[in-house]
Design goal:
about 110 residues; alpha+beta; four-stranded mixed sheet; about 20% helix
Length: about 110
């Protein structure tokens, strides 16, 4: 169903489980074939580290669980295009030079 869409949005947020392990919850938002918005949890990924590289790798791993990557979500690739990446305001996510957003742009 996801591959039938022109655009998708990736949402991610960090959490800490009871064992104090950093995790990233990865969601995908898209419009279904009946033109209704759908938000689904793709994966909960344990992070190797909570820095930008670790979070980016965690999001990529989550996307990989449904056979997507940021590279595949590029407008020049067949299939859906990344329309939006929605994260909280943490500097690890939004850092201009080394944050997750800057890694997605590259």
């Amino acid at each position: 169903m996801v591959n039938a869409n022109n655009f998708v949005s990736v949402l991610a947020d960090g959490s800490t489980d009871a064992a104090i392990k950093e995790q990233e919850l990865i969601y995908l938002r898209f419009i279904d074939l009946n033109f209704r918005p759908v938000t689904c949890l793709i994966d909960i990924v344990e992070l190797n580290s909570a820095n930008a590289d670790g979070v980016y790798q965690g999001i990529e791993k989550g996307l990989g669980s449904i056979d997507l990557t940021f590279e595949k979500l590029n407008p020049t690739s067949p299939g859906p295009t990344l329309a939006n990446a929605n994260f909280d305001g943490a500097s690890v996510m939004l850092g201009e030079r080394g944050g997750v957003i800057s890694k997605i742009r590259k």
